[in-house]
Amino acid sequence: MNNNLLQWFNRLDPLPWRWDKDPYAIMVLELMSHQTTLAVMLKRYPLWMEKFPSFEALARASEEAVFLAWEGLGYYRRALYLHKNAKKIMLDGLPVPTIVAWRSLWGVGEYSAAAILSRAYDLPILAIDVNVKRIIMRFLGKSFWDKKDAETFLTYFHGDFVQNPADFNQALIRLGQLICTKRVSYCRDCPIAHHCASKYMLRLESKNKKDIIRQDRYILLGTFEDKFFLEKIDSGIGKDFYRIPEIQENIWHELRASQLDDATLLKVRKHHYTKYQDTLYPLLIVFTDEDDIVNILQKENFSWLSKEEIKEKPLLSAYRRIMEDALAWQERRDLF
């Protein structure tokens, strides 16, 4: 069975990061790929690397620029971790090539450290995440995980692993994405099925449904002299991103009724994050007095932003779509 896994891997169309050896590029890949689908990674990873191609480039960037580049990927703390790590490495240099040293960086766990060391330094360290655990447990016919299982698994592939740990770890990732998936395994196409204890015996795993907390949020997008009133989030989810301010539902309805000539209901949008799903009801009002909206919203951490300035500010993805709707409305209005 030696070489079967790598031969299969080498026949696949290579992903853009297949031959990366730069510790920076691999760290970005690992942190960005957490909670991000492959389809999204294929679009966003090259864009990030074009904008911030090195630790130095990322360290020089402002936090706002980093968040803007990360916009839409969610779990924004990952972007903050990358930024902090870049600054630290520019001051202290790269960590020595050990698991302990790399785990000292923000957001770098056991798996990410192993992936970086195996690919950037060719060290024979198996990168084990939940998907690799699943492959190993199925291969060995185990129903629970034991750390010793990794050693047992590697006895079947020792030559491949030691000679090319970078490709071996990447091959396991691709195997989990394409063949030995969470819900079903395509055993006929599996390059390591010959010795797999669970071959053709797997049943679909039930998909755990998360309890989604649904919330209605009534938001007011005020505009004055072609600038928009936005607030900066100062804590919690989306910290340091911008959003459209929320107001009480009864005030929202009162404003909509009393400002008929100047109020426009924009498209209702959904905002999904962690275990929440917010339904956003955006009301756009053109104000003739700047103080009116300030008094209505009573927000402290706010900014009046032009169309050009908004493009340079990081917004939570649902709010970005609402802003695009508002700007499109503004352009239509200006035509008449």
Task: Tell me what you see in this structure.
By secondary structure, the protein is α+β, with helices and mostly antiparallel strands. It has two domains: 4-195, Hypothetical protein, domain 2 (Endonuclease III, domain 1, Orthogonal Bundle); 213-335, Nucleoside Triphosphate Pyrophosphohydrolase (Alpha-Beta Complex), CATH 3.90.79. It is built from 16 helices and seven strands. The protein has helices at 4-11, 23-33, 38-51, 55-60, 63-70, 77-92, 99-103, 110-120, 130-140, 148-154, 158-163, 165-178, 249-258, 290-297, 307-311, 317-335, and strands at 213-224, 227-232, 242-243, 263-265, 269-273, 276-286, 302-305. Strands 1, 2, 3, 4, 5, 6 and 7 form a seven-stranded mixed β-sheet that branches. It is elongated. Belongs to the Nth/MutY family.
Shape: elongated
What name does CATH use for the topology of the largest domain? Endonuclease III, domain 1
One letter per element, helices H and strands E, the order comes to HHHHHHHHHHHHEEEHEEEHEHH
- pLDDT average, as an integer? 90
Strand content: 5-15%
| Helix percentage range | 40-55%
Tally of structural domains = 2
Work out the number of β strands.
Answer: 7
Q: Radius of gyration in whole Å, from Cα?
A: 25 Å
Q: End-to-end distance, in Å? A: 72 Å
CATH class of the largest domain: Mainly Alpha
Describe the main β-sheet briefly: 7 strands, mixed
| Structural class computed from helices and strand pairing | alpha+beta
Number of helices: 16
- The assigned CATH architecture of the largest domain is Orthogonal Bundle
Low-confidence runs of at least 5 consecutive residues: none
CATH superfamily of the largest domain: Hypothetical protein, domain 2
Pfam families: HhH-GPD
Family: Belongs to the Nth/MutY family.
Organism: Entomospira culicis
Function: Adenine glycosylase active on G-A mispairs. MutY also corrects error-prone DNA synthesis past GO lesions which are due to the oxidatively damaged form of guanine: 7,8-dihydro-8-oxoguanine (8-oxo-dGTP).
